[in-house]
């Protein structure tokens, strides 16, 4: 399976480009991020069937062997959510979206700082893992107070998020350095999408940072008598919904920039791509209150405003659907595809990376449509606290994002290691 990355652009005399040693180190760092991410995914996925069996009336947590490792349904659910939704996504995105801009701009990052951010993120993960495994932080993915976890968990989670913000800062620094060395030049589109995603995450993460650092850590250490649970929920959802776009936008980068090349075509419209990511940057953050329609601390007027702002996020998502489909159709017709839908047969379905991403896009049609239902003040009370909500969550991050990242790995691993996939047929079967 061939690499989907273009050749590196020429470096500027005022800005050192990627030399062989730096590129080798950067590739190794990206591999470390990716391996850590998929190890977390593997453990988190293994915990998933335990939740399903519990819903089916089979309490597997009473089995003696399992009871030694996981003491309750809620501990298993917390581990499942944290590993899959937070650890897997953050590690993969941090590696993927540091490598892409550095490679796209041909700018040499500070590799000591880059490795420091990985080690810091890993240290935060290991710190948070201890109370999770000891059943001292069974506070679920949302960790709403008055559920109280160990301060070690909150500190570890804060360190992990802080490390991702350090990655964001390094990417923005690379981009600004490139802009200074190339005045008047248009930012390459892959870097444009990456920087927009990181800027969105920096703004989105503020709510969680404030909640954890200034409320939950002092409270769990006994430095304060209590916290305002409604304020904590509002701060959580400042981050809690935009984080979904932090998961999705890296997948969109692949759909826009790399999937068309894997299908044998080209990006449908670079201008449309830039517009979509600019809209995501503007619309992604002020949407969290649609998770708080039943909360009395938020005025109804703000709930209505956030409902319509959430609906606006559907616009760049629809632009993405149109652009990705147009790119695939263009590629298929260039290879002999004919008919209204007959061109679909001419796509390279034997390519595991392309197939994974196309199936992820199809699954996200249902996830995106379900999101409109969740955001509606009329329908939200009907579907909340039902299986609809975990279903929606699993279609978005559990299918669209995860399947896309798997598809990316099928070409990224050979690109990073210089080795062929062990078995392209097995990769296709896994999809």
Automatic annotation (TrEMBL):
Where is this chain's protein located in or outside the cell?
Membrane
Q: Start and end of every Cytochrome oxidase subunit I profile domain?
A: 24-431
Q: Which domain of life is it from?
A: Bacteria
Q: Which PROSITE patterns does this one have?
A: COX1 (PS50855), COX1_CUB (PS00077)
What InterPro entries does the record tag this protein with?
Cyt_c_oxase-like_su1_dom, Cyt_c_oxase-like_su1_sf, Cyt_C_Oxase_1, Cyt_c_Oxase_su1_BS
UniProt family annotation = Belongs to the heme-copper respiratory oxidase family.
Give the protein name, as stated in the record. Answer: Cytochrome c oxidase subunit 1
- Organism in which the protein naturally occurs: Deinococcus caeni
Q: What is the lineage of its organism?
A: Bacteria, Thermotogati, Deinococcota, Deinococci, Deinococcales
Report which gene this protein is encoded by: cbaA_1
